[in-house]
Amino acid sequence: MSVQIDINPNIREIPFGTRLLIGQAARKKGDVVSLSAGMPNLPMPPYITQRLLEGLESGYAPYTHYFGYPELREKLAQHLKVGYGIEADPEEELLITHGVQEGLYVAMRSLLLPGDEVLMPSPHYGEYYMNTIACGCEPVLLRLDEEDGFLPDLDRWEKAITPKSRAIVFSNPNNPLGVTWDQGVLEGIAELAQKHNLVVLVDEIYHDFTFSGPPVSIGTFPGMKERTLTFGGFSKAFMMMGMRIGYVVAPAEVLSVIKKLHYCTVLGPSYPGQLAALAALDCPEDQLTPLYEDFKERLEMMYSRVSALPGVTCVKPQGGFYMFPNFKRFGMNSMDLALKLIDEAGVSCLPGTEFGDYGEGYFRFATCAAPEKLVEGLDRLEKWVAEFPLG
Ligand SMILES: Cc1ncc(COP(=O)(O)O)c(C=O)c1O
To answer: Measuring from atom 1 of ligand 1, which residue has the nearest CA?
Structure first.
């Protein structure tokens, strides 16, 4: 007897698959240099690894505090105060999550009602869109243009706001665009949020990779703490991707609700992850600063070579691991062109459409492969472009 199992259409409709196709094509091809994944090739700093190994020596692997060890939240609150200017009560305004990814999910599910509109500057990080669909909400893409250096056009954005608009979500520094919005730009967004009573969800996972000046957190602006949820994490800043530790800073009342869904979703954050996170917050500067400098150099090197390619234009990246070059002159849609790049050049990247329709005609390149691999990937890319029959 066949059984019809009904499935929640909101979850069924979550778009997912582009990056799987790219991965499959790369595996099929074999010898491929990956400029696609946002996963740094480096191990954790030795101080963190050492403390983690010591912490695991007993073999003990308990459940942890539901909301993250109090000691970790206290240290993190201190870290956020010094490094971000963010004041967060470790008991009531700070939650340790299973990466930023979990934080975004539980926060959006807790805040949004079906039918709400969620504004997102776009091209955007995929999870913002996916969560919006999962919540039965309407994503409203606020187009960012290369001609404007991917800076917001606030007048145009304001016209997209309706009585149903509830929240705006973005990353700063930006994945996939590589740009970092400064104090002035963020002040404009804060003003808009206050004027239209929007909740701001800001993903600052690349905070330590801000290369254009001191990083600025929108949640620290006057009148913004009450309406801002700040997401951050240890994955990128400490090369702790698989440790799965992130956090959410939110107003106490909002966080008290998010905590319930977090409990339902993960029970408590990972034990080894929190051991590593505790160590990370004590990690000597001389084991961290070189990491950030290394990524800055990688981005500069990649930008100088990619922006010099014939037929390609690119906004200069100022943070994070990424750049978003324009390949429209190549006359193909991004997905087909990305597959052709894998097949003909042995280089993989993500098609711009992975980040929404406004990414059509663009690629996202990441600087996370080992430096010698990056160089090899760029050599292959240059050769392929030189032989490409540009119209
Ligand atoms: C903008 C952005 N947010 C969140 C994440 C996921 O972070 P985490 O590893 O903390 O879940 C990523 C990972 O690439 C990202 O680029």
So the answer is: 175
Residue with tokens 């778009």: 15
CA atoms within 13 A on the CB side of 364: 31
Confidence of residue 16 (pLDDT cuts 50, 70, 90): confident
Residue 74: band (very low, low, confident or very high) from pLDDT cuts 50, 70, 90: very high
Q: Are 279 and 119 in contact (CB under 8 A)?
A: no
* Pairing verdict, β 117-122 and 165-171: parallel
Q: Omega of the bond prior to 173 within 30 degrees of 0, cis? A: yes
The rounded percent of the chain whose pLDDT value lies above 70 is 100
Contact of 284 with 47, CB cutoff 8 Å: yes
Q: Which residues line ligand 1 (CB under 6 A)?
A: 38, 99-101, 125, 171, 175, 203, 205, 233, 235, 241, 246
Cβ partners under 8 Å of residue 365, min gap 6: 35, 302, 306, 322, 323, 324, 325, 349
- For the four alpha carbons of 260, 266, 268 and 273, in that order, the dihedral sign comes to negative
**What one-character DSSP code corresponds to residue 238?**
T
